[in-house]
Amino acid sequence: MAIKRQRDKSPQRFFVLDTNVLMHDPSCLYRFQEHDVFLPMVVLEELDKNKRGHSEVARNARQASRVLEELIVGANKKDIEQGIKLPEPTNSSYESGHIFFQTRHLSSELPPSLPGNIPDNNILGTALALQKSRSDTKVIIVSKDINLRIKAAALGILAEDYQDDQVLDDLSLLYTGKTELEQDFWENHAKELGSWMEEGRSFYKVAGDDLESWYPNQLLYESKSGGFEAIVREVNGTEATIETCANFYRSHHSVWGINARNREQNFALNLLMDPEVDFVSLLGNAGTGKTLLTLAAGLAQVLDDQRYHEIIVTRATVPMGEDIGFLPGTEEEKMVPWMGALMDNLEVLSSGEGGEWGRAATNDLLRNRIKVHSLNFMRGRTFLKKYVIIDEAQNLTSKQMKSLITRAGPGTKVVCLGNIAQIDTPYLTETTSGLTYAVDRFKNWQNSGHITLISGERSRLADFAAENL
């Protein structure tokens, strides 16, 4: 039986939670280890205001309220004033702390010119009052609101972002899906090198201490033009099996009329066309070909190979600017304005057909095999033998990403597309995005693959704008 770590003698931290933390992660109360948590009364009022509706925020507000109710069941007023012991988390070496509810008026004089709304200022005043009454503890406000944290710092109050959902400390540490081979790689590994052919594919077996940093389905390449490109098929400690990548550069080996224009695109097509890879994530800036490559691979496997029954496309409906309001029609018709990128790429894929009638017939065929669904209606569904595309995945939280990927049934492939630099969802950052979360968690799985696309292939105008604007 594990021994719980006792509290040390250093000043304990006393966390004052903002409402947005509870609405972001309803189970956040169990994430503060042995430290105590304080909930101002205004937080409970804001939870009550936000609990109505069918949005993710409303669901989280209701869930947070249920968690709080479970904690106070059977507790009397004295227990609440002295702090309710939080349940000890499983597999943790820490004793859990206590949760305190505001049971009396706590206020401290704030500067009369302090800007902002009343709830934020109430939290700041409460934190200042706690600082004076608890001189032996560090009072810290935890909030996803940057402006509240700035105002707290200006008043001399410690403030932190909620970081339990942060996948990485720095985005530069995110897995890119590729690694460059050193110039003397083959010379250094020549002693234990094995090679063979299997069903027209070339395989190599290599061994060495430097292979421990490799991941399954990772791209290996030589930097010189036209150099060796391979995919890691299996890693077992210091031994690895690699396979040369299929060549999608040449016109006679295209995917639905689309050829790779650079190394990353060629590797992306290798992952997208591989039936053994169930989950693929593609990162890249605008114009790198994420949607076009994914759609081309999907159509080739749905219409030509008949590996999947149809293509399912979904995305988070987060507007870039002002919301345009109510959209009439069915679910699919409501989603059409959000799927402009899909329609643009379908035009490219159908442009090879002869004549106006041929293009119209092809477009009708493609639209019959591509279904557009809203993210809001995904709960409880199971997709069987479907090719599922999650577009703009950087706008999803880790919980939304989990909910979507777990919809996959037998024979289904899920492809996540996104640009981490273009997050429109409030309170999400590059290091807390659901796409970052998925890339990091799937990198060790044998049936998943990832690649970060670099080169823009849209147009010289788009390339110049991306670099200079």
How do you describe this structure in short?
With 469 residues, this protein is an alpha/beta fold. The protein is 32% helix and 19% strand.
Output the keywords.
19% strand; alpha/beta; single chain; elongated; Rossmann fold; six-stranded mixed β-sheet; 469 residues
What does this structure look like?
The relative contact order is 0.11. This protein has 469 residues and is an alpha/beta fold. The chain has a 6-stranded mixed β-sheet. A 6-stranded mixed β-sheet has the order 7-10-11-12-9-8, with no helix packed on it. Strands 15-14-16-17-13-18 form a 6-stranded parallel β-sheet, sandwiched between helices. The protein has helices at 19-24, 41-50, 56-72, 77-82, 118-133, 146-154, 185-188, 263-272, 290-304, 331-335, 340-350, 355-369, 398-405, 434-442, 460-468, and strands at residues 13-17, 36-39, 84-85, 98-101, 138-142, 158-160, 178-180, 194-198, 201-207, 219-221, 229-236, 239-244, 279-284, 310-315, 370-372, 386-391, 413-418, 448-453. Helices cover 32% and strands 19% of the residues. The chain contains 15 helices and 18 strands. Helix 2 packs across helix 3 (56-72) and helix 9 (290-304) packs across helix 11.
